[in-house]
Specification:
Largest sheet of chain A: 7 strands, mixed
Strand content of chain A: over 45%
Number of helices of chain A: 0
Helix content of chain A: under 10%
Largest interface: A-B, 29 and 20 residues
Oligomer: heterodimer
Strand order of the largest sheet of chain B: 1-9-8-3-4
Structural class of chain B: mainly beta
Mean pLDDT of chain B: 93
Chain lengths: 114, 111
């Protein structure tokens, strides 16, 4: 079974621009979570989508948003990019059943804001 | 979710067992212990999880103390490819899937 895929793998943007990152979960997984990883703050939870609904959100400004499609694929968008948004953005998917809700991560998208 | 404490770094000789400790003294009854690792700039890789019984899979063993306040991840025969940051995370299941990562343990496997 294919793992979590993220596109693009690398991205360079300038301040003020916006960016959209994509995540395709493992087949059959209905939950997609997004995380941001920076050297200073470590891995931080952004938000989680399940059945096209956001059901959990981390402490990030409204410039960070996401959505999930009916096929469970998810996108996250960052508007008005700032230098501090440079990070590795990770997506994780899970089955979300009581018996098993282990999250499996994709390879990440490395975003550089200049 | 309960907080975890891990040593910042550890060394292990290749071929030897790597024992990575984790303290989670405030763990509650419905919280599981999860272990992930992250090799430089890659996505975290799931290793193993457990509730109260010891667990073993093809990657590692997880030993949880009887009072559940601490656990140890064991890599039985460490190789250079096991060099990574290892994260111990405590989370209840069947709830919103937020994982709270600490700073982890940087394991360096050497020849």
């Amino acid at each position: 079974k294919a793992g979590v895929t993220q596109t693009p793998r690398y991205l360079i943007k300038t301040r003020g621009q916006q960016v959209t990152l994509s995540c395709s979960p493992i087949s059959g997984h209905r939950s997609v979570s997004w995380y941001q990883q920076t050297p200073g703050q470590g891995l931080q939870f952004l938000f989680e989508y399940f059945s096209e609904t956001q059901r959990n959100k981390g402490n990030f400004p409204g410039r960070f948003s996401g959505r999930q499609f009916s096929n469970s694929r998810s996108e996250m968008n960052v508007s008005t990019l700032e230098l501090g948004d440079s990070a590795l953005y990770l997506c994780a998917s899970s089955l979300v059943e009581v018996s098993t809700d282990t999250q499996y991560f994709g390879p990440g998208t490395r975003l550089t804001v200049l | 979710d309960a907080k975890t404490t891990q040593p910042p770094s550890m060394d292990c000789a290749e071929g030897r067992a790597a024992n990575l400790p984790c303290n989670h003294s405030t763990i509650s009854g419905n919280e599981y212990v999860y272990w992930y690792r992250q090799i430089h700039s890659q996505g975290p890789q799931y290793i193993i999880h457990g509730l109260k019984n010891n667990e073993t899979n093809e990657m590692a063993s997880l030993i949880i103390t009887e009072d559940r306040k601490s656990s140890t991840l064991i890599l039985p025969h460490a190789t250079l490819r096991d060099t990574a940051v290892y994260y111990c995370i405590v989370k209840s299941r069947g709830t919103a899937s937020k994982l709270t990562f600490g700073t982890g343990t940087r394991l360096q496997v050497t020849l």
